[in-house]
Amino acid sequence: MTSTDDNLTLCHPRPSSGQNPNQAIVVVSPTPSKLPPNHVLIKVDRFGFSANNVTYQALGEAPHFRYFDFHPTPEIEGVSPKTHGITPVWGFGTVVKSSHPKIHIGERVYGYLSPSRYLLLPVSPSDVNKYAFSVPRPHLPADRRPYNQITRCSSDPLYNSSPAVEDLTMLYRPLFWTSFWCEDWLFRSGYGGGATRILISSASSKTAFCLAYLIRKRIKSAVLPGTRIVGLTSRKNVDFTRRLSLYDDVLDYDSFISSSVMRLGGDKWVYADVAGNDSLNSNVFSHFGDGGHLVKSVALGLTNLSPSSPGASSTKWSKNEFQKDTKPHRPSDLEQFFMPEWLAVRRNELSVAEITGMQKIAWNDLMRDCVNWVTLCRVCGREDVKRAYDDVVKRGLGPEEGLIWSLWEGQNAKDESSPSPKL
Question: Structural domain of residue 213, as residue ranges?
Answer without folding.
Answer: 175-347
